[in-house]
Queue: 4 jobs
Job 1
Amino acid sequence: MLTKDRAICIRAIDYSETSQIVTFFTKATGKIDAIAKGSKRPKSPFDGLIEVLSHGNIVFVEPASEKLATLTEFQQQPALINLRNNLSVLYTCLFAAELLNNLTHDHDPHPGLFDSFLEFLHNANQQHPTGNEQRDLLALLILFQLTLLNEIGLQPVLDRCVNCRKSGRVGLAPPHLNQSAPDVPDVYFSNSANGIICRDCEASFPDKIRLSRDVSACLFSFKQIPESSEKTLKEIENVLINHLTQLLGRKPKMAKHILDGV
Ligand SMILES: [Zn+2]
């Protein structure tokens, strides 16, 4: 049966001299692996070699008994992207694609996540209004990672202590309240608990990381993230990379490029 879908390539490996095996994140079907026969030939049937982060409309055949689908059409849209001109943007987008590939299951559709990923790729490749591209890229990446965790049902608990469920006295509050309360208690994040831990509970969570006040304010209210300083965003991204490493059982390959040089 022929299936049509919108798709973004999130992984591509050489299969033979002329063919590739590609992983697409599709809007209606979710993640699929497909063989693209002839994709490396000069007259490729798929508008040229299929590269990671290319996107467009695909048609594929999914045999009942085999794992690999067969790609029959890929009408590539113009690249979103001047990725090759900008390594920071390229690495950030490849990191997001790696997370999507490793945290979603085959044939588990998330149309909202598809739209979020496309929007993330688009925004990452825009001119940055603040003139601080690295900061803006980090803010976009953080928001995408939080969306991804939410979509796959692994969203950390960020508005209260995940252990005792109390929010009022754990120091979590919008930043204007935090600023007027200099004695707000410390707040922590625990990977194993999947969320925020308060001062009263922290002793039971050896893996906890202490959060600065700005970071806990951002995690309490995501609206703060695009306005935050680069230092705060780096701290948040560090917490997220640690958390993702725990979830995946290994550090994502592209993670080393994210906080370096930012
Ligand atoms: Zn607690």
Job 2
Amino acid sequence: MSVIQQSRAAENYDIFDLSAPHATWKLLREEAPVFHDPASGYWVVTRHADIKAVFDDYQTFSAEIAQAPMTPLCTEAKRIIKEGGFTSGLSARMPPDHTRIRKIAQTAFGPRRFKSIEPKIEAIIDRTLNDVAKLGQFDFFRQVAYPVPALVLFTMMGIPDEDVPKVKEWAVSRALVTWGNLSEEDQVIHAKGMVDYWAYCCALVAARKAEPQDDFPSDLLRAQADGADITDEEIAGVMYSTLFAGHETTTTLMANAVIALMTNRDAWDEIRENPALIPSATEEILRYCPSIVSWRRLAKVDTKIGDVDVPAGANILMIMGSGNRDDAVFPDGERFDIHRANARTHLTFGYGIHFCIGFQLAKMEFGIMLRELTKRFPDMMLTNEQQIDYLRNISFRVPLKVEVDLGLGGAA
Ligand code: HEM
């Protein structure tokens, strides 16, 4: 029997508001764990077990809408995107193409590439933290969390330093068109940004084909030359996916982590005294304040999620940020605890066939950042009376700034 419960939290739900969602998500888990939100047309899923089940059943719950614009596009924006000639990246592709392309992409994320990137990550973090140490007080989001993952990823992807600002800008266009709520005028501006971004990925693949280098697109082209079944356009699609997925997410993780640790001082002090806690602290941070709090699927047939009937064609929003605090899996789930034994069963990187391909890179980068921050700036704190605002969209819980004071006394 289908059970749809009444819930005030469900009635007042605003799918784009990520400013302080945890109390609402808790109520939803208790009162209406799967409900239809008439304002957005989405079925919202908040319990850990239900989210995992949806992720796990890729045939019933297709990923094809993972990158669809959340707000329907106007005719002009649609035309620009259509003429841009896109192909899908990875996260919205379906088997068998997804299986084939992902297998090849994974070879370029192997231990060899990670080993070679680690010292480069250390150098980028060292340089960035040396610069901010001179400031004493600054916006951690803008000056540390924003540039570091981009510089790391773009080094790995073979993007020259002078192109970094425009690629970062295009990534914002892509995020806003896909997950935001833009006016028609802005849709046109950002649709052009997405098309430029796609053209850039295609040109980069062509350039590496002509002249291979020691980077990710050249690795994929070498695999192709050795017989791997992947076209140039599919390689550009993987670049397009990865160039976006690989930096905004890690930027947000770093910024959210600083907020969590500055407001849970005991944990910060413990990590500072014992850096061996960094791996378990990283898992708890990923659980407690994930960068991506929700992700989408499309029901292909009439089905059920938990006890609730969901029709074929239903758009589904899984709130991993809520599942990550579900008491059924994480006792006292609203509490931040870097000793939590099962923190790594969080849903922050998704689950199943689309599980995040860059999770090791994200954890490695974050671990180095946490080690260096606790070592160099033990007295860092959030500046007083700071209100932290978050980007308005459905998936990325991004603080707009995180002002910190390094407590260095006198640095200016
Ligand atoms: C804290 C950082 C990160 C978070 C929270 C995150 C989260 C996610 C999530 C939720 C998905 C969708 C999973 C699913 O549908 O089951 C995903 C997929 C993906 N991620 Fe990440 N990610 C992060 C970092 C990265 C990095 C560093 C890279 C690349 C360098 C990356 C590349 C990708 C790609 C290519 C996919 C698509 C995989 C597929 O569809 O097979 N991500 N990520």
Job 3
Amino acid sequence: MTLRILYHGLGMAGKTTNLEKLREIYSDYVSDRIHQQTSEGRTVYLDILSLSIKTRSGDKEIGVELFTTPGQERFRILRKWIFGRVDGLVLVLDSTRSLEENLRAYEEVKEYGLSGVPMVLQLNKRDVGNLSPEEVRVAFGDVPLMEAVAIAGMGVAETFRAVLKEALNAKATAG
Ligand SMILES: Nc1nc2c(ncn2[C@@H]2O[C@H](COP(=O)(O)OP(=O)(O)OP(=O)(O)O)[C@@H](O)[C@H]2O)c(=O)[nH]1
Ligand SMILES: [Mg+2]
């Protein structure tokens, strides 16, 4: 079984940083990795981080492919391909941007037909931003919400574990 987990959010929200930190945290489990970036460090096509992890009981190995959407407008056309099959979604919210701006990223999720995909929210850039978790909860309701400082690695593994759990639960329910 391979699970595909998409990190989506506004440009510069911290999607690539999440994958970078996960690559460090799960370095023993990394099977492959692609990162294509512009000279300014923005993601061009996408990042892929491929992990091979064991279930809690240790009897099964599952592949997890993590990928991010490129935030820059000029790469918008690529997103239709990227949004193909997705088992779990992390919506990376940028605390330095308004709720309205962040909600635009969620509109894209719906536009691309992913509103039924298991989702968790990551409220990133807690070290510099003011967007409040309460405000986010009002907008999104009962969706799991993790606060993070991705550049410091805080909340990164927690977010990953949360989305993995949601994705696995959904798979188990679907049979
Ligand atoms: N202060 C602060 N900066 C962060 C945090 N997370 C990421 N950044 C910075 O924000 C910038 C953008 O981060 P990326 O991870 O490249 O963002 P992205 O969402 O992949 O951006 P695109 O690929 O262009 O869509 C970088 O300079 C990061 O170092 C955080 O928690 N706090
Ligand atoms: Mg990126």
Job 4
Amino acid sequence: MARARLHPDGGTLRCPSGHTFDIARHGYVSLLTGSRATSGDDAAMARARDRFLSTGRYGPVRQAVARLAAGAASERGRGTVVDVGCGTGYYLAGVLDRLPAARGLGLDTSVRALRSAARAHARAAAATWDVFRPFPLADGVADVVLDVFAPRNPSEFHRVLRPTGRLVVVRPTGRHLDELRGRVPAMVTIDPFKEERLHQALDPCFVAAATEQVEYVTSLTGPEALDLVGMTPSVRHSNRADLEDACLLPDRVTVSVLATAYRPR
Ligand SMILES: C[S@@+](CC[C@H](N)C(=O)[O-])C[C@H]1O[C@@H](n2cnc3c(N)ncnc32)[C@H](O)[C@@H]1O
């Protein structure tokens, strides 16, 4: 897709050469045309994520993201925030709450997640997009790019950010959800070289400016524990009946993540 400006036209967005992109009944825009992306949360995972995040158990992570993002926006809280792999828009909404005059755009391949993201905040829009394709955004338009537990495209992050902008990346440490790993078969393990690989991937385009480590233990009800597993890819390899076995899931978990704000080189 050429990087031409899109204009609203009835229930669609139209580009100058006449292509139209539908605005779904649920509020997100279908920009992703052609071959389908190979990754993205299915409807059950997106519903589980919606329910789990609405409990507030990841509230401290959301606050850290908002703090780091706020450092990059203008004094009056203006600016554009792009959340890549936004899921249900939980973190994007947290940042927009903190920046009273900013607007947000969530991009994701999961249409079920985008239904929630489109409603996550009055100043947020949501669109289908594959992070591995060139983003549907002009150069230097974003003050903040968020990437929270989502796939990354460093060169596109860099292209769409203003020189004064910030990329905020959240990823798990080796202790994240440790209590689940022993109990849930196929629970995704954390690559011990994850930090090194992240550094190598981002280093050509970004310099780390500030990092917050967020680590705490949170209690879980049975349904919350099921949703926490249900929103991860490991659920695809697990048997729900096994998971529902009360002995299997813990009643508390360690949340342990690193959140870093990077400035463009
Ligand atoms: C672990 S979830 C994180 C969602 C959200 N950032 C959060 O933390 O709640 C990963 C997200 O990336 C999305 N995703 C996976 N592959 C993608 C791709 N190629 N392009 C865009 N989004 C993708 C998934 O659909 C999912 O919403």
